[in-house]
Amino acid sequence: MRPWLVVDCYVEQPGSGAGNFLPHLIDREAVVAQAVRVPLPEDPNRFGGVVITGSAAGVNDGLDWVDGLVEFVRQAVTDRVPVLGVCFGHQ
Q1: How many whole angstroms separate alpha carbon 39 and alpha carbon 58?
Q2: Using CA atoms, how far apart are residues 45 and 18, in angstroms rounded to an integer?
Q3: Average pLDDT over residues 9-23
Q4: Whole-angstrom Cα distance, residue 12 to residue 24?
Q5: Please, which contacts does 61-68 make with residues 24 or more away whose CB atoms are closer than 8 Å?
Q6: How far apart are CA 38 and CA 69, in angstroms?
C-alpha cells in the first residue's frame, strides 16, 4: 500500500498543519511535505492520495511554493491520484 502525502501549507507555523490530518489516516502510512520550506516530491504517483492543508497564504499571492504546489496538484489529478484539499488546499 502506498503512503499518503500530507502537504503542510501552514506559513504561520510550518509543520503544524499536518497534525490536524495525521490522526485520521489511521490505517495508512503518511509522508509530510512542508510546502513552504522544501520542494514537493516530483511524482505524485508514489502516493495513494494527497491531502493539502489550510494556510494563511492564498493561491493568487504569487509565492514560488504555491506555484510548485499548483503544478503538483495538476499532475496528481491528471494521473488520477486522489486529492483532498481543505481550506487553502481546495483553492
Answers
A1: 18
A2: 20
A3: 66
A4: 22
A5: 65/35, 65/36, 66/35, 68/35, 68/39, 68/40
A6: 11
User: Which residues share a beta bridge with 5?
Assistant: 31, 50
How far is Cα 54 from Cα 51, in angstroms, rounded to an integer?
10
Average the pLDDT over 58-78 and give the result.
91
pTM: 0.84
d(CA 43, CA 22): 21
Secondary structure (H, E, C), the chain: CCCEEEEECCCCCCCCHHHHCHHHCCCCCEEEEECCCCCCCCCHHHCCEEEECCCCCCCCCCCHHHHHHHHHHHHHHHCCCCEEECHHHHC
Cell, residue 81: 491520484
* Torsion angle of the four alpha carbons 69, 63, 56, 82, in this order, in degrees rounded to the nearest 10: -10
The single residue listed with the C-alpha cell 512542508 is 34
pLDDT for residue 74 is more than 70: yes
